[in-house]
Amino acid sequence: MEAVGVVTAVGPGLTDRKVGDIVAYAGNPMGSYAEEQILPASVAVPVAPAVDYKIAASVLLKGMTAYVLLHRCFKVEAGHTVLVHAAAGGVGSLLCQWAKALGATVIGTVSTEEKASQAAEDGCHHVIIYTKVDFVAKVNEITSGKGVNVVYDSVGRDTFQGSLACLMSRGYMVSFGQSSGGPDPVPLSDLAPKSLFLTRPSLMHYTATREELLQAAGEVFANIASGVLRVRVNHTYPLSDASRVHADLEARKTSGSIVLIPDS
């Protein structure tokens, strides 16, 4: 569901894309494990010349997700304090870098010392290894009991209730994934003590129009070109080895982003 390529043909009536353009897409339609793909023109976005094509191929989906989370679901501004779970993950890494650049104080949770080092490199002012300490108590300590403005939670079941506890009054709980499983149903009354906001966003709803899509993609590429966002492409494989990529993923042999390169 994510690729970069060279336009080899365009349909009739198109004026803003031409043969030879470098374009990217992220989302539907599926089918990017291919040497050639037919795409609706409305989903193809131009790749800035300053952005390496492998970087672009590895980051658009995660990058637009980070943009939407930081600018649209909750608008992070200087002075805010944010909590990012899985801070060393693909989206988490971008959230930490971008939030720091926006002037926020960034608290990140990770599972290991190695991931803690990466999270610190990526802009976390405070890194919590949740396998060693209670992240709720640590956030309370870091914020002197005030809590955070927003939590970005891609973990789900294991962190959900703790995330709510970390929020300040009128804070925003942004649940955008569930790597540990879906959270239990939340009674509305759980939000009442601090007048909390809860959202479960989908990127596709925030890039539904061409204008929204170009805005999100443009922000991602601009921040990569300017150095605000650093993307780790740690592995490239030939497209013909796609099955090996999945085996290596399942065996936890990879880290960072992976890019498949067509054989021809």
From TrEMBL:
<dbReference type="InterPro" id="IPR020843">
    <property type="entry name" value="ER"/>
</dbReference>
<dbReference type="InterPro" id="IPR047618">
    <property type="entry name" value="QOR-like"/>
</dbReference>
<protein>
    <recommendedName>
        <fullName>Probable quinone oxidoreductase</fullName>
    </recommendedName>
</protein>
<comment type="subunit">
    <text>Homodimer.</text>
</comment>
<feature type="domain" description="Enoyl reductase (ER)">
    <location>
        <begin position="1"/>
        <end position="260"/>
    </location>
</feature>
<dbReference type="GO" id="GO:0003960">
    <property type="term" value="F:quinone reductase (NADPH) activity"/>
</dbReference>
<dbReference type="InterPro" id="IPR011032">
    <property type="entry name" value="GroES-like_sf"/>
</dbReference>
<dbReference type="InterPro" id="IPR013149">
    <property type="entry name" value="ADH-like_C"/>
</dbReference>
<dbReference type="GO" id="GO:0008270">
    <property type="term" value="F:zinc ion binding"/>
</dbReference>
<dbReference type="Pfam" id="PF00107">
    <property type="entry name" value="ADH_zinc_N"/>
</dbReference>
<dbReference type="InterPro" id="IPR036291">
    <property type="entry name" value="NAD(P)-bd_dom_sf"/>
</dbReference>
<dbReference type="GO" id="GO:0005829">
    <property type="term" value="C:cytosol"/>
</dbReference>
<keyword id="KW-0560">Oxidoreductase</keyword>
<dbReference type="InterPro" id="IPR002364">
    <property type="entry name" value="Quin_OxRdtase/zeta-crystal_CS"/>
</dbReference>
<keyword id="KW-0521">NADP</keyword>
<dbReference type="GO" id="GO:0070402">
    <property type="term" value="F:NADPH binding"/>
</dbReference>
<dbReference type="GO" id="GO:0035925">
    <property type="term" value="F:mRNA 3'-UTR AU-rich region binding"/>
</dbReference>
